[in-house]
Amino acid sequence: MTIDEGVRNAVLAAVPSLRAFAISLSGNVDRADDLVQETLMRALANINSFQPGTNMPAWLFTILRNLFRSEYRKRRREVEDATGMYAESLKSQPEQMGRIEFEELREALAKLAPDQREAVILVGASGFSYEEAAAICGCAVGTIKSRVNRARARLAELMSIEGSDDFGPDRETRAVLSAEK
After folding, report:
1. Could you tell me if residue 86 is inside a domain?
2. Residues 26 and 35 sit within 8 Å (Cβ to Cβ)
3. Is residue 21 part of a domain?
4. Taking a C-beta distance cutoff of 8 angstroms, is the pair 61, 18 a contact?
5. For position 87, what pLDDT does the model report?
6. Which of 56-65, 92-101, 166-175 is the least confident region?
7. Which helix (H) or strand (E) is 117 found in, with range?
């Protein structure tokens, strides 16, 4: 990539002012130098968008300001954790079991009779009342209650669920999540 000598000189002449502006924005000399470097890299990568005869420093200052603002917004959502103590204090349940259990539920639902599957999805997953589900299915409320009850019992059987302890993390995962360091 060949850069016109006049454009090159205009960019280099703006560097001290860019650096001063970056220091005033970031309050940190090292961070300011990084901002100026990134600004110059972006400016050179997009030099074709610069209109010759316009104000080069203004164009560069706009790039620097936009870069600073973008990084500021990004950093606001991040937590500084140089020592790793914050990360060590975080505990969350692994996601893979949830995915496996969801797939097992999907397979078990597919094994239900269509009327039971429809009833349990309307009441259990979609949040409809028994009365609303009965109106949707065009049957009596008692029929919906019976279908939901049979569907739940069959799902528990298919998924080997014997009690409330079978929901959520297993014993080992609960122990790890509750352990204090």
Report:
1. no
2. yes
3. yes
4. yes
5. 67
6. 166-175
7. helix 114-120
Among 26, 100, 56, 145, which Cα is nearest to 108's? 100
Residue 49 is part of which domain span?
Answer: 5-78
| Mean pLDDT of the region 48-66 | 87
Note the pLDDT tens digit of each residue in 127-181.
889 999 999 889 999 999 999 999 999 988 888 877 666 556 566 666 665 665 4
Convert 33-56 into a string of H (helix), E (strand) and C (coil).
HHHHHHHHHHHHHCHHHCCCCCCH
Residue 107's CATH number? 1.10.10.10
Rounded to the nearest 10 degrees, the angle between the axes of helix 5-26 and helix 29-45 is 150
pLDDT (tens digit per residue) in 6-28: 888 888 999 999 999 999 888 88
- Angle at CA of residue 98, ends 92 and 100, nearest 5°: 140
Position 91 in a domain: no
Task: Give yes or no: residues 103 and 74 share one domain.
Answer: no
CA-to-CA separations, 178 to 52, 146, 163, 168, 169, in angstroms, rounded:
64, 40, 22, 14, 11
pLDDT value for 26: 84
Q: How many domains does the chain divide into?
A: 2
**Is residue 19 domain-shared with residue 70, that is, in the same domain?**
yes
